[in-house]
Structure formats: C-alpha cells, structure tokens
Write a structure and sequence with these properties.
The chain is of the alpha/beta class. It has two domains: 2-175 and 322-335, Rossmann fold (3-Layer(aba) Sandwich), CATH 3.40.50; 191-320, Glycogen Phosphorylase B (Rossmann fold, 3-Layer(aba) Sandwich). It has helices at residues 16-30, 50-63, 78-88, 100-109, 115-118, 127-143, 152-159, 204-217, 231-240, 255-262, 291-302, 304-315, 323-335; strands at 2-7, 34-39, 68-71, 91-95, 146-149, 169-171, 176-178, 191-195, 222-226, 243-246, 267-270, 284-286, 319-321. Strands 2-1-3-4-5-6 form a six-stranded parallel sheet, with helices on both faces. A five-stranded parallel sheet has the order 9-8-10-11-12, with helices on both faces. β1 (2-7), α1 (16-30) and β2 form a beta-alpha-beta unit. α2 crosses α3 (78-88), α3 (78-88) packs parallel to α6 (127-143) and α4 (100-109) runs antiparallel to α6. It is globular and about 60 Å long. The two termini are 16 Å apart.
C-alpha cells in the first residue's frame, strides 16, 4: 500500500504535526508500506484562498499514486485533502490534533473557557469561527471516511457539535514510550519548566504570576520558559528539569507529559485534558481556573518529601507504544469498511 500523508508542518519546522508526520512516515515504512508527504508550507507564502487552491492541486497530483490519504489536521490542510480524496475516490482518514475553533476563540477573546465546556452553550463566535465549524461539520467530517482522535475525551466532545456518528470515528492514542525504571530520581526540585507556544490558552501568564508568589517563600527555585526550539532541545531540557508544568486551560493529549514521564520528571498538568484518567495516579493534575490550586501544587513540589513521592510515581509507570503502532492503527482505518 502507498499512503499520502497531508500535514500542515514538516521538519525543520517545529511543532507537534511536523514531528508526528516525519515519525509516521518511518512507522509506515517499518510496516513494509510506502509513504509520501505533502506539507502546507509549500504554499504558505501565497495569499489566503489562493494557497488553499494551490494546495488542493498539489494534493491531487500527489494523491493519484496513493491508495489512501492520512490527514494530520482538521482545518488548513483537511479541506483540500478531503476534496481531493473525494474527487479521486481515495479513502481519507483525518487525524485531529487540537481544536482549532476553540483555540481561535480563546486567542481572540482571551476568554479562557475550558475545551470541555466550550460547545455546551452558545458563544459569540466570529464569522471565521462559524465558518470553520461549518466546513468541519459539513465537509471534512462528511467526506472523510474516518475521523481519528488521540483521546476518547475529545471524540466525545465532538460527537454532538460536529454531527459525528461514533462508528465513523476512532481513537488512535499518541506515542507513549516510557521505559521501566529501577529507581526514581532523588534530590529536590529547583527548576520548573514550561515548554510550548506563548498563546492565551497555554496560560503562561498565570504560571508566571503564581510562580512569583511561590518564589518569595522559596527563593532558590527557578522557572524556565521554553518556546520555539527543536524537539531535541525540548527533550533535553525536560530531562534536566526538576518538574514540568503544563498549565494550559485545556490539553487534548499532551506529548510533553509523556516525554517528562519517560525520563522520570514529575509533572503538574491541567485537569481539563484527555489524559486525566490514564495518568491520574502519576501526574499532579490541577484545576487551572483556580490560582490557589496551582500555587499549592508548586509549593508541594518544593517540599523534598512530597517531591520524592511524585518522583516515585513518575518512575512507577512504563509503556511501549511507538509510531509503528500508530501507523498500524491508522493504516487499518484506511483499508477498513
């Protein structure tokens, strides 16, 4: 089988979709199949609208030789990709990343509503946001053969507003490569690390504000903010950090959490996430709508005995889920009924 992976980003660009796309190619090839990639960066320099038409043409040309398309987005590349698949009679599987409409709304309004609450009541959406919902509901979700989510949590949030039938969805969890460890790390927590994009939903200002208060009581601690660096550099910094903090309003499925646990680094993470149930005994989950909860969590990590207990929890888990497993599940969806 030959698959065309359609992605918004590709290395050397940074970002989750770039790393996911490159790793998925290797996973598909490890299964003995072939994979080609087309990235939106090829047309990004053109005006809006024109670039989407050009991208549709590029996908059509590349998809002729493919047996199926795997799309790593629900907005920028998804619409051209599902139209190309429909025109050519190719099977299309769309894998969601985050939730672009919710992200757009939070960034525009600075109303930090959790994703779990976003679709529950009417909101003052912009014309663009209404159009995005319409395109995803009536075109992407209808023309795609399967919509694959990284967590059942997000899948369940989308069923109603996007008129999805459960049988046309799937859950393909992210990579989880956590080796078994003989012993947890020891010592005290001196450095708290945040890594990601500085946008409203990531709540960096909340973290800085709360950390400043905690630091008055623990002057030896530091907060490191990491943005716009390579995946390799992020992984290195996570390994040397005392604790990783993911203070986002919501996270669908945080790769940062898994990467931290993989090297035994304790994590403080938002409670509004699709991985809460999976890691509820291992990660210190916090309701980020209450500053006091985050403050108490940071304080807890400054206590040596408490910190060592969370180190022990981080070291107690193991998991071996690779991109080959992801490739196998996505390709099965491509040939299913």
């Amino acid at each position: 089988m030959r698959y065309l992976i359609v992605t918004p980003l590709l290395p050397p660009e940074s970002g989750g979709p770039a790393h996911y796309a490159a790793s998925l190619v290797k996973g598909i090839e490890a299964l003995g199949d072939r994979a080609d990639v087309v990235a939106f960066r090829t047309v990004r320099r053109y005006p809006r609208g024109v670039r989407h038409l050009l991208f549709l043409y590029l996908v059509l040309v590349r998809a002729v030789r493919a047996d199926a398309l795997i799309v790593l987005d629900t907005v920028s590349v998804a619409l051209p990709a599902v139209i190309a698949g429909w025109l050519l009679g190719k099977r299309v599987v769309v894998r969601t990343g985050g939730d672009f409409v919710w992200e757009s709304y939070v960034e525009r309004t600075k109303d930090r509503v959790p994703l779990s609450s976003f679709y529950r009541e009417p909101r003052a959406l912009s014309r663009k946001e209404h159009l995005l919902i319409w395109f995803q509901r009536h075109l992407v979700c209808r023309l795609a053969h399967r919509i694959a989510f990284s967590t059942a949590w997000q899948r369940d949030l989308w069923l109603g507003p996007y008129h999805l039938r459960t049988e046309r969805t799937a859950v393909v969890e992210n990579v989880c490569d956590i080796p078994a460890r003989a012993r947890p790390r020891t010592g005290t927590c001196r450095t708290f690390l945040w890594a990601g994009r500085r946008i409203a939903l990531k709540n960096v200002d909340l973290l800085e504000r709360v950390f400043a208060r905690v630091r008055t009581r623990h002057p030896g601690i530091e907060l490191a903010l990491l943005s716009g660096v390579s995946h390799e550099e992020t992984a290195r910094r996570i390994k040397t950090a005392g604790c990783v903090v993911v203070p986002s309003v919501s996270e669908v499925s945080s790769n940062t959490v898994v990467e931290a646990l993989a090297v035994g680094t304790p994590v403080i993470c938002t409670k509004d996430t699709g991985i809460h149930t999976q890691w509820c005994d291992t990660v210190l989950f916090v309701d980020m709508s209450h500053e006091g909860e985050l403050e108490r969590a940071l304080e807890a990590m400054c206590d040596e005995a408490t910190y060592r207990a969370w180190c022990a929890r981080a070291a107690s888990v193991s998991c071996a889920r690779s991109y080959v497993d992801i490739a196998r599940e996505l390709t099965v969806l491509c040939v299913g009924t």
